[in-house]
Design a protein that fits this description.
The protein has about 270 residues and is an alpha+beta fold. It contains 13 helices and 4 strands.
Amino acid sequence: MAIQVKLLDHTQDPTKSLYIAYRTAYSALTPMQIERRIADRRITHEQMADFIERRLQTGHSSPLEQVWFEFGISGVSRAFSHQFVRHRIGISFEQQSQRYVKFKDASFPYSMPESVQKAGLGDKMDKTFEQLGKLYQEMLDAGVPAEDARFILPNATATNFKVVVNFQEMLHICDLRLCTRAQWEFRKVAAIMRSEINKKFPELGRYLQPKCGERRWGYCDEDYDAWQACPIGRKRPHKRDLFALFDSYRKGELIPLAESDFKLIEKEETFVP
């Protein structure tokens, strides 16, 4: 079953909302006075965006909780949902119930990993799930409550979500789930969520990166072997190398600049325009 993710609704003007929140913290003006200055164009969109970016560089993140996005998500598996609901702060979920929603006609929608198809086991998985669907229907027909019949449904069974997530938590989701080590299904959902926000609000979407992104941590904190195997790993340093460099600096082990280095620096032809 195909994964679908759609941005259903959002904070009316995220840039304005963030700017008022940040300005309230850093100004003697009231939020209402700040809003009036935006309304009469004394403060432009470009000025707001620039101010927000400078605040983000300081690590001041609490205003990000005041900007929200509402998504519809469908065609994802229960294996995905068990991971998704582990994000508990700054996000609200409503999920399709297997207690109140009965699958009909001895069949249920499900996801099949590409790895299963590549292994040549897709048909076998289909046939197994077909048998489970028949047993599920047999249970319902025998009067077994749906909340009990669902016990035989696999992790692959499809489910649907309607969620509201604030921007701070959206950043956290992308930190973890856009990493190439994240489970493929969650990585795909996070990538589409990012794309949906980026299409509407590119000034915010550019911050939605894996944690190694230049607008996030800027380095990889996964294990070293995983960093070496990562297809984008070489674009970012590993934390081990950063710590080793810092330790060398602390111990005074860095190779000192020699007089010859300064002579090279002073050579006019070494300057790059």
